[in-house]
């Protein structure tokens, strides 16, 4: 039997990440090849025309799993009935800024959108926070959407882990899939600490420790 469509919200859908993300969701890459979706896309009024363009492209693509598109600048309309919310919308950092520098702008956005999710999202909604600083925004969202179970809210700090893997693989000229045990500590800003103390490279001769292979603590 065909599954019921799931309503998926993407905020900031007219932005760079949102634009790349929505076709992937519409193709079933996020929820699976047999899960129909209704996309809810939220952006701010200055981006309304671009958002409408994103909607037109989705319609043109005729994705079989895409059962509807809501493109809106109204947070209530965007949040109504959604079971998954991917919170990308926000102010990105510019040259010379740290992630924490966009906090004041993004925190107020998160308070408002959390309140709309609290009131209008489907029960048991799952939330992924992307806009920076992602972990702080996730905490704000948790505070202002108390009926969403805490375990349903997560944020995308995985980028920092993957970035560390990528840099080690370049430095040591090994495959990224052969790097293991890298840890990222701290906040999703300048207090973050990529820890390679326990990191190792898988080789045909066994595992080799990354600190010894790099042999340069300053790096
Ligand atoms: N966590 C991560 O791994 C990670 C990685 C890359 C980028 N980011 C963050 O993701 C966010 C988006 O990045 P981007 O490159 O797509 O930026 P972008 O500027 O291209 O897009 C952001 C979009 O959000 C919209 N927006 C702004 N305020 C909004 C609001 N109140 N409600 C809804 N939409 C709103 C903007 O109009 C724009 O369309 C930024 O905060 C960026 O720092 C996080
Ligand atoms: O830091 C940002 O502003 C975007 C993203 O999280 C990154 O690290 O590239």
UniProtKB/TrEMBL annotation:
Q: Ranges for the Lactate/malate dehydrogenase N-terminal domain?
A: 6-153
Q: Which GO terms describe its molecular function?
A: L-malate dehydrogenase (NAD+) activity
Question: Which top class of enzyme applies to this chain?
Answer: oxidoreductase
Q: Does the keyword Transmembrane helix apply?
A: no
Q: What is its EC number?
A: 1.1.1.37
Identify the domain of life.
Eukaryota
Concerning SUPFAM superfamilies, the annotation shows: LDH C-terminal domain-like, NAD(P)-binding Rossmann-fold domains
Q: Where is the Lactate/malate dehydrogenase C-terminal domain?
A: 157-210
| Catalysis: reaction(s) | (S)-malate + NAD(+) = oxaloacetate + NADH + H(+)
Which keywords does this chain's UniProt record carry? NAD, Oxidoreductase, Tricarboxylic acid cycle
Do you know which Pfam families this protein is assigned to? Answer: Ldh_1_C, Ldh_1_N
Cite the InterPro entries for this sequence.
Lactate/malate_DH_C, Lactate/malate_DH_N, Lactate_DH/Glyco_Ohase_4_C, Malate_DH_AS, Malate_DH_type2, NAD(P)-bd_dom_sf
User: What PANTHER family does the record point to?
Assistant: MALATE DEHYDROGENASE
Gene3D superfamilies named among the record's database cross-references: Lactate dehydrogenase/glycoside hydrolase, family 4, C-terminal, NAD(P)-binding Rossmann-like Domain
- PROSITE patterns named in the record: MDH (PS00068)
| Name of protein | Malate dehydrogenase
Q: What protein family is recorded?
A: Belongs to the LDH/MDH superfamily. MDH type 2 family.
GO biological process entries: malate metabolic process; tricarboxylic acid cycle
């Amino acid at each position: 039997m065909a599954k019921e469509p799931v309503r998926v919200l993407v905020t900031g859908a007219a932005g760079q990440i949102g634009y790349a993300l929505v076709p992937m969701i519409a193709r079933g890459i996020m929820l699976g090849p047999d899960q129909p979706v209704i996309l809810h896309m939220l952006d701010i009024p200055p981006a309304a025309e671009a958002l409408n363009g994103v909607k037109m492209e989705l319609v043109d693509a005729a994705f079989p799993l895409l059962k509807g598109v809501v493109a809106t600048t109204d947070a209530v309309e965007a949040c109504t009935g959604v079971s998954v919310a991917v919170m990308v919308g926000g102010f990105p950092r510019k040259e010379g800024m740290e992630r924490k520098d966009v906090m004041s702008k993004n925190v107020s956005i998160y308070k408002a959108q959390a309140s709309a999710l609290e009131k209008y999202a489907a029960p048991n909604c799952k939330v992924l926070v992307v806009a920076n600083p992602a972990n702080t925004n996730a905490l704000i969202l948790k505070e202002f959407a108390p009926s969403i179970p805490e375990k349903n809210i997560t944020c995308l700090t995985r980028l920092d882990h993957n970035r560390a893997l990528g840099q080690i693989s370049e430095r040591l000229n090994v495959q990224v899939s052969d790097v293991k045990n890298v840890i990222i500590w701290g906040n999703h800003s300048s207090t973050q600490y990529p820890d390679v103390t326990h990191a190792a490279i898988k080789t045909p001769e066994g595992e080799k420790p990354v600190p010894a292979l790099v042999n340069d603590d300053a790096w």
